[in-house]
Amino acid sequence: MLIRLNDASPATFTEQIVAQVRLGVANGEISRGERLPAARELAASLGVNMHTVLRAYDALRAAGVIDLRRGRGAMVVGGDRPEIGRLFQSVSALVVDARNLGISAVELSSLVKGLAS
């Protein structure tokens, strides 16, 4: 599992980690029963605070995607519905299109927020 964080993204690092894990589960890159890296290990590899990863793992646990057990780590227990995977793919395509048109991430975020409200 490869997670990349974008400093320029309007999304927090926690939100980016959650989105990338959910996308990995939705598109089959991460399978049910697979263990995620320990929070300390993932934080070190990403160069972020361990609590950032712990917040992401807690959000994934609350969404029913992973199970957290002290001493056993985080394990994928459920998957997102297939339509979530399609949504992530659509959003990825939107981001690429916006980038090609010269629309910044901040502008795109504002456009989406405006449409969602």
Automatic annotation (TrEMBL):
UniProt keyword terms in alphabetical order: DNA-binding, Transcription, Transcription regulation
Pfam families for this protein: GntR
Keyword Transcription belongs to the record: yes
InterPro entries: Tscrpt_reg_HTH_GntR, WH-like_DNA-bd_sf, WH_DNA-bd_sf
Keyword Transcription: yes
Listed PROSITE patterns: HTH_GNTR
Occurrences of domain HTH gntR-type (ranges): 11-79
Source taxon at top rank: Bacteria
Name of the molecule in the record: GntR family transcriptional regulator
